[in-house]
């Protein structure tokens, strides 16, 4: 068993460095091992070290991407001010499994009061992405994150529940890129009042342990300089699509939209419009979404050199009273007119 684990780590290191020469990343940090949390299941010990291999953002999917989840290294820091002295080119003290929060058994840390934290990994960019920009994406880091790429302060993000992206192309070195994240998560400590839900540094009764640090997938993906950075899409029970596309640079680019039956080539609608304002059009005879028949459609959006996929269902929801109680209603076609 020990042999297999060691072999897997070596194989992983070889895979990472296959196209580039490997810099010594870490000397001898404490090896990762899953800890036994207070509430475990049989699956806790079956996660392995390649967690969440799926594309993490179904709402805005790019065909090319590379997950950075897996074994990173971690050290606790002493204060918020530590962020001004990042551990460039040095070894952090222990391995951590990203993206599991530092309090979890799966992270391998199972810490408490993990308020100030350093994370570190290295990544290479596939050579086929050469002509594109490289976006570094974080699904979520609780609560503040400062991100350094090859010594450059690439971005800062505040908000433990929200995703963020940064174009890191200008900081890349063409080889093993050093990625360092400083995370600060006060939870309800000291004078901090931040959105925490029921997390507390002193768990009791119905309040529970915090979830600190990187807790959602980290990944890179190629995109043109002017790319689709966000979108809002809505399909109603009358078959009307209402879509707003946000672009990273241009406020006037045109977009082409195609809608197909899920997993098929059968086209049900095609439409064009511009980024930044709602684009509306109708899909004839759309199959409505319902709990018994949860029909979804594949949506492709092309904007200049960029293209992404997303999805929609068609349904209108309302709120009304039934037997004197407020309920959520699925509005039928005839009722929606
Ligand atoms: C880290 O090491 C690289 C390669 O030796 C070097 O180019 C870089 O300047 C170092 N960074 C810092 C912040 O010392
Ligand atoms: C990093 O850059 C952000 C701006 O993106 C800034 O707010 C933050 O103070 C910087 N942090 C450090 C440690 O330089
Ligand atoms: C489309 O959605 C936007 C919000 O994104 C809303 O302001 C607008 O009224 C909607 N248009 C239609 C026709 O429903
Ligand atoms: C979408 O972009 C990818 C590269 O990201 C490209 O290979 C593919 O041909 C594009 N598809 C369309 C329909 O433009």
Brief digest:
This is Beta-galactosidase. The chain has 337 residues and is mainly β. It has 2 domains: 203 residues, Jelly Rolls (Sandwich), CATH 2.60.120.260; 90 residues, Immunoglobulin-like, CATH 2.60.40.
Task: Explain how this protein is built.
The chain is mainly beta. The chain has two domains: 21-223, Sandwich (Jelly Rolls), CATH 2.60.120.260; 228-317, Immunoglobulins (Immunoglobulin-like, Sandwich). It is built from one helix and 21 strands. It has one helix spanning 2-17, and strands at residues 66-67, 70-76, 94-98, 116-123, 133-138, 141-142, 144-149, 152-158, 164-167, 177-184, 213-214, 218-223, 228-235, 240-247, 254-261, 267-274, 279-282, 297-303, 306-312, 316-322, 325-331. The strands form six sheets. Strands 3-2-4-10-7-8 form a six-stranded antiparallel beta sheet, with no helix packed on it. Strand 15 and strand 16 form a beta hairpin. One 2-acetamido-2-deoxy-beta-D-glucopyranose binds at residues 88-89, 151.
């Amino acid at each position: 068993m020990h042999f297999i684990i060691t072999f897997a780590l070596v194989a992983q290191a070889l895979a990472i460095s296959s196209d580039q020469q490997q810099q010594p990343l870490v000397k001898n940090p404490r090896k990762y091992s899953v800890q036994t949390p207070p509430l475990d299941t049989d699956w806790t010990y079956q996660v392995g070290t390649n967690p969440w291999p799926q594309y993490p953002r179904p709402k805005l999917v790019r065909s090319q991407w590379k997950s950075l989840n897996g074994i990173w290294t971690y050290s606790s820091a002493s204060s918020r001010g530590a962020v001004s002295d990042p551990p460039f080119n040095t070894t952090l003290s222990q391995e951590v499994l990203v993206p599991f929060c530092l309090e979890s058994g799966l992270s391998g840390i199972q810490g408490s009061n993990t308020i100030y934290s350093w994370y570190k990994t290295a990544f290479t960019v596939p050579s086929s992405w050469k002509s594109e920009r490289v976006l570094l994406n974080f699904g979520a880091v609780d609560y503040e994150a400062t991100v350094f790429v090859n010594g450059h302060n690439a971005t800062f993000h505040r908000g433990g529940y929200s995703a963020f992206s940064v174009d890191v192309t200008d900081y890349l070195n063409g080889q093993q890129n050093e990625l360092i994240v400083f995370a600060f998560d006060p939870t309800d400590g000291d004078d901090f009042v931040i959105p925490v839900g029921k997390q507390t540094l002193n768990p009791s009764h119905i309040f529970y342990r915090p979830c600190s640090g990187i807790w959602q997938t980290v990944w890179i993906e190629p995109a043109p300089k002017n790319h689709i950075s966000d979108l809002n899409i809505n399909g109603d029970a009358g078959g009307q699509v209402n879509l707003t596309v946000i672009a990273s640079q241009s406020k006037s680019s045109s977009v082409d939209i195609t809608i197909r039956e899920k997993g098929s080539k059968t086209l049900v609608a095609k439409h064009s419009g511009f980024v930044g304002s709602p684009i509306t059009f109708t899909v004839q005879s759309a199959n409505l979404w319902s709990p018994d028949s949860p029909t979804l459609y594949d949506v492709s959006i092309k904007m200049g050199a960029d293209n992404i996929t997303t999805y929609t269902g068609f349904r209108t929801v309302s709120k009304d009273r039934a037997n004197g109680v407020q309920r959520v209603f699925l509005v039928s076609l005839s009722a929606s007119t």
